Amino acid sequence: MRLIRLLKNDLARETADWVAEGIVSREQAERICTRYGTDFEQAQGRSLGYSVLTGLGYLFIGLALITLIGANWEEIPRALRMWGLIAITMATQGLALRRYLSGDEGGATGIFLLGNLFFGASIILIAQIYHLGEHMPDGVFWWALGCLPFAVLLRNPWLALQAGVLALVWFFLEVSLGFYPALFPLFIAAFLWVLWRGRESILLLLLVVAGIGFWTEYSLAAWWRESGHFDFRAENLAVGVALFIALYALGHWLAVRTSAVARDYGAVLSVWSLRFGLVLMLVLSFAGPWEELIEAEWRYWLPMTVVSGLLAAIALVFAAGGGRLRATAGLLAFYFLSLLAAILVGNQEHAVYFQLVYNVALIGMGIWLIVRGIHSGISHYFFLGVAAILLTALMRYIDLIGDYIGGAAVFLLFAVLLLAAARYWRRFHSREGAV
Questions:
Q1: Which residues are within 8 A (CB) of 326 and not within 5 positions of it... i.e. 6 or more apart?
Q2: Is residue 102 classed as helix, strand or coil in its secondary structure?
Q3: Could you tell me the sign of the dihedral formed by the alpha carbons of 297, 302, 306, 312, in that order?
Q4: What is the 3-state secondary structure (H, E, C) of 142-170?
Q5: Confidence of residue 213 (pLDDT cuts 50, 70, 90)
Q6: Which of 5-14, 52-61, 300-309 has the highest mean pLDDT?
Q7: Are 378 and 372 in contact (CB under 8 A)?
Q8: Residues 6+ apart with CB under 8 A from 290
Q9: Lowest mean pLDDT, pick from 28-42, 93-107, 336-350, 400-414
Q10: DSSP 29-68
Q11: CA dihedral in degrees (383, 384, 386, 391; nearest 10)?
Q12: Environment class of residue 293 by beta-carbon count within 10 Å: exposed (0-12), middle (13-18) or buried (19+)?
């Protein structure tokens, strides 16, 4: 059984009630919490709501102080401004370190976040005093880099999230100006360390996955560009699909680990990569994207094949360890054979056949998700499958394939597939009832 973070905290608090009522012993409650990756003692203390409100409170303290300084900025002597900012930053971080060493990690985290905010304000305002720097993203880079040591040394996911958001802002500022953010992998490596050694954080995991995806795609676009701007090509799509299939396989590999944290990360990776796959299939269920893929130049097909092949091999290794080898191999074969066919066909009029195949595949995926949701008792798969089928039907109603007769034929095919799935469901439950 998989439980999300908020429900785990509710479970821990519920077990405390069971202990008070004598239903289970304290040791049994602790073992139940350990099984689902939550801390019995910690859950009885501060709640997530308390942490969020405290963090927001520190944020507004920082904004209030910065606003007050900014309002009287020109009236304060230059040296006093600079040393005052440095003193505020060092005093705040020193106070946070003292709270941390006293054992109050939760309280220290909020003050560290506030100290990092003062650090960023100091960089911006001191640069303004002395007219330093002509490349604006550099200030954000040093701000993110300055936040990183506290996150890594304390293995704190909230501090890592703050540094991660700043690193992503720096990343997009650089690429918007046509520069390649070569040091971005340094941040990704640090965040992976925090994920491995620190407390569980789904938000940090999603930030790392998004960062790896953006960095991979922009690296290829920088490699393939012929001018000052990043050049996104059809080859980026093939690499992106291979990357998310690798993440899907990694998710299933993590899901069979003994660690509760690894199983949680695995569930998140498999669910989000599945959502990405369905969105991509929905986009490819239109003729327009296929017409563009058919007429694309595919000039960098060799490096695309090498990178995609490497990611596919990684996906197959993880899938073998996670018991999803056939499903992963089927996904890889389906995507890449359809892309290969688009490269070879060379006629935009044939885009409608690719559109038809992906519409049928979407319905098939929806039915598979519904059946899997019924078999495994996971409601998320069931409703994701229903959403995939309804969205496909809605899109086809708006954008009829070919003509009205073609649209009616597709709707009839959908009906046959759904009725066959319903018949299978009834037979499955009849067999279960007979057993």
A1: none
A2: coil
A3: positive
A4: HHHHHHHHHHHHHCCHHHHHHHHHHHHHH
A5: very high
A6: 300-309
A7: yes
A8: 284, 342, 351, 354, 355
A9: 400-414
A10: HHHHHHHTT--HHHHTS--HHHHHHHHHHHHHHHHHHHHH
A11: 140
A12: buried
Task: Report whether pLDDT(8) > 80.
Answer: no
Structure tokens at 280: 């991509």
Can you say how many angstroms the Cα of residue 350 is from the centroid of all Cα atoms in its chain? 35
Residue range 370-409, pLDDT digits in tens? 777 777 766 677 778 878 877 877 777 666 555 666 667 6
Give every CB contact of residue 322 below 8 A, 6+ residues apart in sequence: 249, 251, 252, 253, 254, 255, 256, 266
Structure tokens belonging to residue 102: 């006293």
The DSSP line for 261-322 is: HHHHHHHHHHHHHHHHHHHHHHHTTSHHHHHHHHH---TTHHHHHHHHHHHHHHHHHHHHHH
The pLDDT confidence band at residue 428, using thresholds 50, 70 and 90, is low
The three-state DSSP-derived secondary structure of 211-256 is HHHHHHHHHHHHHHCCCCCCCCCHHHHHHHHHHHHHHHHHHHHHHC
The first and second tokens of residue 198, run together, are: 């620190």
Long-range (24+ apart) CB contacts under 8 A made by 261-269 are 261/37, 261/200, 263/2, 263/37, 264/2, 264/5, 264/37, 264/200, 264/202, 265/195, 265/200, 265/202, 265/205, 266/322, 267/2, 268/202, 268/205, 268/206, 269/205, 269/209
Among 110-119, 311-320, 369-378, 416-425, name the most confident range: 311-320
Which residues neighbour 303 within 8 Å (Cβ) at sequence distance 6 or greater? 220, 223, 235
The tokens describing 164, both together, are 């991660």
Q: What distances in angstroms separate CA 115 from CA 102, 131, 138, 140, one per listed residue? A: 18, 24, 20, 15
Count of beta carbons in the 10 Å neighbourhood of residue 140:
21
Which residues, at least 6 apart from 349, have a Cβ–Cβ distance to it below 8 Å? Answer: none
* Predicted structure pTM score: 0.76
Q: Which residue type, as a one-letter code, is found at position 144?
A: A
Give the number of C-alpha atoms closer than 13 A to the C-alpha of residue 101, restricted to the C-beta side: 6
pLDDT tens readout for residues 168-211: 999 999 998 888 999 999 999 999 999 998 888 889 999 999 99
Specify the amino acid at residue 386: V
Reading the block at residue 90, the tokens are 């060092």
CA 355, distance to chain mean position in Å, is 28
